[in-house]
Target: 4-aminobutyrate aminotransferase
Amino acid sequence: MTAPEAYYPNEPTKPVVKTSKVPGPESQKQLADLDTVFDARPAYFVADYEKSNGNYIVDVDGNAFLDLYAQIASIALGYNNPALIKAAKSPEMVRALVDRPAPGNFPSADMPDILRKILQVAPKGQDHVWSGLSGADANELAFKAAFMYYRAKQRGYDTEFSTEENKTVMENAAPGAPHLAVLSFKRAFHGRLFASGSTTVSKPIHKLDFPAFDWPHAEYPSYQYPLEKYEDENHKEDERCLKIVEELIKTWKYPVAALIIEPIQSEGGDNHASKYFLQKLRDITLKYNVVYIVDEVQTGVGATGKLWCHEYADIQPPVDLVTFSKKFQSAGYFFHDPKFIPNKPYRQFNTWCGEPARMIIAGAIGQEIIDRDLTSQVVRVGDYLFKKLEALQEKYPTKFHNLRGKNRGTFIAWDLPTPEERDTLLKKLKLNGCNVGGCSTNSVRLRPTLTFEEKHADIFVEALAKSVTEL
Model:
């Protein structure tokens, strides 16, 4: 029995759209009410999660959409998943929710088992985890870990802080608050907080009006597609961008302590990095004593056909830190070098040190992926879907620029000629029963759950073909 049939015997067999526009009248009414106490402007519609099931999200107007956006790429197994409901009703979850442990000071007796369930699906080469509250928080915590590690190597891991360091840090001055930098890439998205915002370069709206660190942004490769046709051109693009990375590390006004990269830039337009590029970055970071951070917040937990996208590159030696959130329903970073644990307690710390309730769900998600071999399903369905999209591209070449994501599961995207055409396509897809998201200015991205099957792909492609002809 396939995963969706086992999970979702009552899943809709096809989309149902009852309203002439989305959001429909009941959604509009409820959004107006919500807007009196909350900023409801970004909302697509108001969802009825009790009625949503499997790969279908239902709204309060009774529309049932095949969901290929999945809560901004963050639903791994589908709506009302029975395995997660079982975990939510467990005694461990009751304690985590009602007593809300502060694990740094008062860890629960079941904390080691909770974390080991997460670690069983850790990236290859990583055997430690530190927990956070969101993707942006995970990246900010990783930056802190990188800075402390970097300075400890300079100072000596067991060396006490100097009187000058203790004094100047209270004045936000060096050497206690050193001038260090994190190198990120243009078009990157790593979060909307302060340090993460400084490494984010996808859209101005994400970071306008708040102070930013003076940190460098390198060029992320822009490849020509299909990849097999442009191997030489794309290799030259890798080399061009690698030279920029190395030059920035050598010449930036502050020492570059860490480098952070998404193996596929997601919010920035589904830009892919090659195996060669990711490995060469490892060589550069080792050469210049730079901490290598891979941001797998959106690419992680199976959507690309491997649990962690950077594993396609088989980076050696393993990267230093891997951040996660979204489909894991928890957040944090994996690591393997014990020296990323600060030399003194309370340096990497907060009241809750993550969220034990979300960690329980993360462990259950990981176990389901293993037990049902969902990454293999993603590979199979992704290949099936990509071939169908290639056929549509041949039929409507002006509406499918740079189709990408081949051999990367269902992590697929393409470009429309203009932002206006992209936005119009997304609206028409909703009216034809599919909830799909965009990224960058004119890209369409597909982010279905890991339980998405061929039958769902067929429904989507039919709706897409109809929507394209209506443009």
